[in-house]
Design a protein that fits this description.
Blueprint: H1 2-100, H2 103-117, E1 124-129, H3 138-147, E2 152-157, E3 164-168, E4 175-177, H4 179-199
């Protein structure tokens, strides 16, 4: 009887151990699968993050290079423009300033301008630099008024450095004839050719 009980206990024990071992193995296998799954997901996520980071880095590099190229081109264009303007200013401003300081040149320019303007206006005003006043005699001023049959008002401005301004009687517009205006006009025509001579096409 004792032997049978021992045998039964041994059998129950062995079955319990076997079941426990099987359950433990099942749990371990399940844990391994979950761990492998988690590692696989982590690898996929890491690869996705890495690809996104590489794409962002490539986009940033491309945009930075594009911005740098644009900045370089703008700077180069501005520099060429500045050099062109300096050369034109040196060439034109000095000559035009000298010309506008020559009384005979200014007198002739005023006379020719008013004669041409007479075709589009029957009366008006001319504003001349105050420093020209002592250089223009009464006969010359009368000859200017005669162009417009006496309908031209001649004024002198202390604020004008040189040159003159014409305007119709109603004041709807003004046309300036100063050395700077001529320089800007000439520059607009000469700038493209000057730039081509200096820097090529």
């Amino acid at each position: 009887m004792n032997d049978q009980l021992q045998e039964l206990l041994k059998k129950v024990y062995e079955e319990g151990v076997a079941k426990a071992n099987a359950e433990a193995e099942k749990i371990i296998n399940s844990a391994k699968e979950q761990a492998e799954d988690t590692v696989s997901q982590a690898k996929q996520k890491a690869e996705t993050i890495l690809k996104e980071a590489e794409k962002k880095a490539a986009d940033l590099k491309k945009n930075t290079e594009s911005d740098l190229n644009m900045a370089y081109n703008h700077t180069l264009t501005a520099l060429k423009q500045k050099i062109t303007d300096l050369i034109l200013s040196e060439a034109l401003n000095t000559k035009l300033n000298a010309a506008f300081n020559e009384t005979e040149f200014v007198k002739k320019l005023i006379f020719e301008t008013l004669t041409a303007w007479k075709e589009n206006a029957s009366s008006g005003t001319i504003m001349i630099s105050e420093k020209m006043k002592p250089l223009l005699d009464d006969f010359y001023l009368k000859s200017l008024k005669d162009i417009f049959d006496g309908k031209l008002k001649v004024d002198f401005s202390p604020t004008m450095k040189q040159g003159f301004i014409i305007a119709p009687e109603d004041g709807t517009y003004k046309i300036k004839f100063e050395s700077d205006d001529f320089a800007n006009l000439f520059k607009s025509y000469l700038r493209p050719r000057t730039k081509e001579i200096l820097f090529g096409k």
